Amino acid sequence: MKKHIISYAHIKQNQVSVNGTIMFSAAPSTTLPEFLTELYKSMGISYPKFHKMDALCKLGILCTEFALKDTTFLADNPLNKIAVVLSNASSSLETDRRHQQAIDDKSNYFPSPTVFVYTLPNIIIGEIAIKYKITGENAFFVSEKFDAGLLVSYTEALFSEQTQAAVCGWIEVDNGAYEAFIFLTEIQENTNKNTNFKPLNQLTVIELYNQTIWTH
Amino acid sequence: MDALIEKLKGQIIEQLNLVELKPEEINPDSPLFGEGLGLDSIDALELIVLLEKHYGIKIEDPKDGKTIFQSIRTMAEYIKAQGKS
Question: Who among A51, A110, A117 is closest to B53 (CB)?
């Protein structure tokens, strides 16, 4: 049984790359909220809950959607054996700041429950799990920078238990700067399934992470 | 009452980020939760904040929420009954 990466998506600099090819591009001057809305509309999906999410969750959902596009990942793996393993550097700091602003002024003290629920980074995992009905293991790590070794070693450990597949990656938002990289990995008994699949290891993940040639 | 209902529609769309909905698409008698607008428990908290922020109404007993938040019309009737419209 081999573990393969079957698909990956990368979003940064107002561009989306799927399996190394740029699939969507917005003007460099587009702000993150504008970009996320534009991207959501371009995908032709209807998920009203999307608009209630903070930027971190919107980014995570959209990147996952692109990684899943044109795959049979969700159909091929039992949903209770798909793990979600994510990481970033700034945790939920962007939304933490919004909540702080709402409670700073004691004379105008109206903290928003909708903002408050996103003051934990692992809420992205919850949003992904809800949207795709995934009920397997999950973990969220905070590290200074994208750490392929951490994601691979933790996912490998899950594969030694009940997990058969995983949604892994990096979802970072801080002060308008952002980046999302999601890869889908699964155990395959039939290794001839698709010769384009990449083996799951740290070097491959680093290679895929650096693969896209961004045009702006 | 109609003016208050229209105002509430706009405030709910804004407060709950229901950006795919237009005020005219909301039936004031449709249930806010479950079917109808399909709001969830976090939205319920947001509606409580909305009443306090925009109308100065504090809901002291959470049980009252079931009646008040049945629909936009029941919300409007409650606001009016409180003399806050």
Answer: A110
Nearest to B67 by CA among B57, B78, B58: B78
Rounded Cα–Cα distance for residues A154 and A78 (Å): 20
Structural domains of chain A, with CATH = 2-209 (3.40.47.10)
- The whole-number mean pLDDT for each consecutive block of 10 residues of chain B, a chain of 85 residues, reads 94 88 91 83 92 92 88 96 83
The answer to whether residues A88 and A180 touch, using CB atoms and an 8 Å cutoff, is: no
Domains, chain B, with CATH or none: 2-81 (1.10.1200.10)
Residues of B in contact with A113 (CB under 8 A): 42, 45-46, 49
Identify all chain A residues contacting B19, using CB atoms and an 8 Å cutoff. Answer: 51
| Closest residue on chain A to B52 (Cα) | A110
Query: The pTM is what?
Result: 0.90
Euclidean distance between CA atoms B64 and B57, whole angstroms: 12
Q: Which of A210, A184, A203 is nearest to A3 (CA)?
A: A184
Look at residue A191 and give its three-state secondary structure: coil
Look at A110 and B20 and tell me if their CB atoms are within 8 Å.
no
Portion 9-68 of B in contact with A at CB < 8 A: 16-21, 38, 42-43, 45-46, 49, 52-53
Q: Give the number of other Cβ atoms within 10 Å of residue A160's Cβ.
A: 7
